């Protein structure tokens, strides 16, 4: 097991090194005038790590999009679909250059850079967003949605549209809600069946107050950190476990250093596709139409890919000797409900919670 942790660590270190090199060679910000005039300097900015997935060389409007997730994962699959569709709908003029594995920084960094127009796009979980737009925090409540259909109905409806619109306060156009998935808990010590099994365990969470409060209410010690730090933290014992959707656990190979996965479905985790408002405003009407169409169709593709991927991913982990435990979710829901008594102290918009409850 130790060799596996070392291998995983070396992978992260290697990507980190290449990221640093990649960043050194990248130019500075891309302002909207460049986007339209498709400055040729953009192409010199497209160096990156070995995992970088550059669009067609011939494209002149290049949109750099970052994600913390693995190249084989469901975020990147959706971005690759959008890359293909954008090239098609713009007659080859526009493309995405995809930077996985935190090459452009952690989720909070990327959101700030997109807001400043330093980076064109990112695809990130809702984890860090409430630090910028507090209303997003309601989406991180435990057991808010029973299934994906309920989540899509709310996220694609009035509530989701309004939340995305609030990102303009940060200089960001919220393009759409894609899917991270229902978040499961993993560890390397023992099988987790009920919340009592979490007692005394240090569980890595996103830097998100609602997730932290929920794990504390379940009896664990919530330990927030950026995703890129997870393998080091697991190796050094800073944390005993972490929580993420199956697609992340499998594609990032977390299961190689975590023998137990418990299917608690504690949170439904969307991810948000963002573009710098200044970049989008610099598009021609035709470019906006191509971008919007490609993004909308890629969202549907990515959600379908996400749910089909999970079944295969669980089998991959079982074949690798991982214990995948189904739990009695009613027991978990009862324990997690304590967080709903903390809406005021967590500064959550109660009217918005009620609106979601009544519209799902
Ligand atoms: O957005 O930090 C996390 O656990 C996220 O799920 C991951 O970065 C993908």
From TrEMBL:
<feature type="compositionally biased region" description="Low complexity">
    <location>
        <begin position="29"/>
        <end position="46"/>
    </location>
</feature>
<dbReference type="GO" id="GO:0030288">
    <property type="term" value="C:outer membrane-bounded periplasmic space"/>
</dbReference>
<dbReference type="InterPro" id="IPR038404">
    <property type="entry name" value="TRAP_DctP_sf"/>
</dbReference>
<keyword id="KW-0675">Receptor</keyword>
<feature type="region of interest" description="Disordered">
    <location>
        <begin position="24"/>
        <end position="58"/>
    </location>
</feature>
<feature type="signal peptide">
    <location>
        <begin position="1"/>
        <end position="20"/>
    </location>
</feature>
<dbReference type="InterPro" id="IPR004682">
    <property type="entry name" value="TRAP_DctP"/>
</dbReference>
<dbReference type="GO" id="GO:0030246">
    <property type="term" value="F:carbohydrate binding"/>
</dbReference>
<dbReference type="InterPro" id="IPR018389">
    <property type="entry name" value="DctP_fam"/>
</dbReference>
<keyword id="KW-0732">Signal</keyword>
<dbReference type="GO" id="GO:0055085">
    <property type="term" value="P:transmembrane transport"/>
</dbReference>
<dbReference type="Pfam" id="PF03480">
    <property type="entry name" value="DctP"/>
</dbReference>
<protein>
    <submittedName>
        <fullName>Tripartite ATP-independent transporter solute receptor, DctP family</fullName>
    </submittedName>
</protein>
């Amino acid at each position: 097991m130790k060799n596996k942790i070392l291998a995983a660590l070396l992978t992260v270190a290697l990507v980190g090194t290449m990221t640093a090199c990649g960043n050194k060679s990248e130019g500075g910000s891309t302002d909207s005038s460049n986007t339209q005039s498709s400055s040729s300097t953009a192409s010199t900015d497209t160096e990156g790590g070995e995992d970088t997935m550059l669009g067609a060389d011939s494209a002149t409007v290049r949109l750099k999009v970052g994600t913390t997730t693995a190249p084989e994962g469901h975020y990147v699959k959706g971005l690759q679909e959008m890359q293909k569709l954008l090239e098609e709908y713009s007659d080859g003029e526009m493309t995405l250059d995809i930077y996985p594995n935190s090459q452009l920084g952690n989720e909070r960094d990327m959101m700030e850079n997109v807001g400043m127009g330093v980076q064109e796009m990112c695809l990130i979980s809702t984890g860090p967003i409430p630090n910028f737009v507090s209303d997003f925090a309601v989406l991180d409540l435990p057991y808010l949605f029973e299934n994906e259909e309920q989540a899509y109905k709310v996220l694609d409806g009035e509530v989701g549209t309004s939340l995305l619109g609030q990102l303009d306060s940060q200089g960001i156009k919220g393009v759409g809600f894609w899917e991270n998935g229902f978040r499961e808990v993993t560890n390397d010590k023992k099988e987790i069946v009920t919340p009592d099994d979490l007692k005394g365990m240090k569980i890595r969470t996103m830097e998100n107050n609602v997730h932290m409060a929920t794990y504390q209410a379940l009896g664990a010690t919530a330990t927030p950190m950026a995703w890129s730090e997870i393998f080091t933290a697991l190796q050094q014992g800073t944390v005993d476990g972490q929580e993420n959707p199956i697609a992340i656990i499998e594609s990032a190979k977390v299961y190689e250093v975590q023998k137990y996965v418990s299917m608690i479905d504690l949170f439904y985790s969307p991810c948000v596709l963002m573009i710098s408002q200044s970049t989008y405003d610099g598009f021609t009407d035709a470019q906006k139409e191509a971008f919007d169409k490609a993004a909308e169709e890629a969202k549907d593709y990515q959600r379908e890919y996400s749910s089909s991927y999970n079944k295969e991913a669980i089998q991959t982990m079982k074949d690798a000797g991982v214990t995948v435990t189904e739990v009695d979710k009613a027991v978990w829901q009862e324990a997690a409900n304590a967080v709903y008594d903390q809406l005021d102290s967590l500064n959550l918009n109660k009217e918005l919670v009620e609106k979601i409850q009544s519209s799902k």
